[in-house]
Amino acid sequence: MNQLIECVPNFSEGNDLSIIKQITDEIEKIEGVKLLNVDPGKATNRTVVTFVGSPDAVVAAAFNAIKKAGELIDMSKHKGEHPRMGATDVCPFIPISGITMEETAEYAKKLAKRVGEELKIPVYLYENAQKNTARKNLSVIRAGEYEGFFKKIKQAEWKPDFGPAVFDAKRGATVIGARDFLVAYNINLNTTSTRRANAVAFDVREAGRTKKDEKGKVVSDEKGNPIIIPGSLKSVKAIGWYIDEYGIAQISINLTNINITPVHIAFDEVCRKATERGMRVTGSELVGLIPLNALLNAGKYFLKKQKRSVGVSEKELIKIAVKSLGLDELAPFKPEERVIEYLLKDPSKAKLIRMNLADFADETASESPAPGGGSISAYVGALGVSLGTMVANLSSHKPGWDARWEEFSNWAEKGQKIKDELLKLVDEDTNAFNKIMAAFSLPKVTDEEKKLRTQAIQDATKYATEVPFKVMQLSYSSLEIIKAMAETGNPNSVSDAGVGALCARTAVMGAFLNVKINAAGLSDRRFAANIIRKGKNIEEKTKKLEAAILRTVEKKISNNK
């Protein structure tokens, strides 16, 4: 697996788009890096940039950006709502795939060392890149902000990790580190009061607030330490501020571990605390990017609160999440620009399922050998399980069956997962065929080239056998859902379950034809014999189960006459 790091530098400029463009141009100059998102904020006068790439490429791109930001941004003239201390205020590295947090931290240190030594900017390490526990936390490092660092940097305990211990009036100081994925998230209130927004922020943030008596004096324990009242949410940092651009106050939140406190839980808790203080949440705003699962989980959460089926499409779950969280209150929310997985997708690998029905049929009917029977089998299987899923969703909404919504929701959720996997295989079967063609086109002049070509053909053929076999497995597993819907689902939709069973049988038998024809070209006869034996078993079980489902369907149709 290729190593992939995400970098999310925050630059202290959110108004002059030409400056931001010059900085991001420096990032895009580096090969092996992909710029994912640029999110400027006028009131905060701050831009959050997100890019990903191989570790060395990310280090090079981040260095270029920090250098250019230092040339273009004058911190002595900077004003903004967000806490800040430098032109490049913070530059975190986040491990995405194929790399550990420890390895990521080493790359962060590599960047910090280079920035300190070559650019002469004071650099502080934070989070997983920092060994000193007293200065791991970003808010602790940044305390006093830009204005206070002229004195702070001269203190022995605040000597930079890299670079000179002299504060740079123009460029300020920079914090570089390695951390887990963080979601920056603002929740909108129907107030203009920063004080009241802060009150809600202190209610929910993990650090909470210091306890005070009726006169506003800090209450201490027997040892003289201030008593802290913790907030209600773990792994949450929050402050309140007023945004002149929108004319409202917000709770600005950093969700440092969305497995502990997801976006939807933070939103609902802020709603609750705001209501207790006489305010109302009107919506929210995402800063930067968000993982796909965070939105899908939010969609499911809000559907469950309504006692509705969560077995709906990915697109529908995101729509529910966006509307429930009010992510589109201040500006249109475009998932294709905000979901990290969508930005990392390679469109060339999903060519077929992105087509409309007519174009897909035309492509199949063309003189090209792909898509062929394998892709069609996968698509027929997807249609079959989609029908079963439809019956489950209709059943969950059937009047008088309200107590059974969760039962049918579970079936629909299983169906959606199988459908999504089969849709991926529509394109993957064609990709597998193309791999075989590519292997046959390899040079075969020398003995070594002939050997490599033969091996490549065998590897590609083996993969082209495994893909339709996976179609068989998934299509057969869909019959469990279809059978349950034929037997216990909405009786008005029983014929749909029957058609679903017919599709699943076709998908299994069609995919098996592809398994057999590809397995015939394998030199690994043990593998070929084994996969054909397993295929025959799935085909036989499919035929029996399909016949049983159709008997149930015919019986119910006859009883409805």
Helices, strands, pairings?
Layout: E1 4-7, E2 10-11, H1 17-28, E3 33-41, E4 46-53, H2 55-72, E5 88-97, H3 101-118, E6 123-127, H4 138-142, H5 145-152, E7 174-178, E8 183-189, H6 194-204, E9 209-210, E10 228-229, E11 236-243, E12 248-255, H7 263-276, E13 281-287, H8 292-305, H9 314-325, H10 335-338, H11 340-344, H12 357-365, H13 373-396, H14 405-440, H15 447-488, H16 494-519, H17 525-559
Parallel strand pairs: 5-7, 6-7
Antiparallel strand pairs: 1-4, 1-5, 2-4, 2-5, 3-4, 8-12, 8-13, 9-10, 11-12
Helix pairs in contact: 1-2, 2-3, 6-7, 8-9, 13-14, 13-15, 13-16, 14-15, 15-16, 15-17, 16-17
Q: In angstroms, what separates the terminal alpha carbons?
A: 59 Å
CATH topology name of the largest domain, in short, is: Four Helix Bundle (Hemerythrin (Met), subunit A)
Provide a count of the helices. Answer: 17
* Mean pLDDT rating: 93
CATH class of the largest domain: Mainly Alpha
Please provide the ordered H/E string of secondary-structure elements: EEHEEHEHEHHEEHEEEEHEHHHHHHHHHH
Apparent shape: globular
CATH architecture of the largest domain: Up-down Bundle
Structural class: alpha+beta
Radius of gyration: 29 Å
The beta-strand count equals 13
What's the CATH H-level superfamily name of the largest domain? Formiminotetrahydrofolate cyclodeaminase monomer, up-and-down helical bundle
* Percentage of residues in helical conformation: 40-55%
Give the total of domains: 3
- Name the assembly state: single chain
**Low-pLDDT ranges:** none
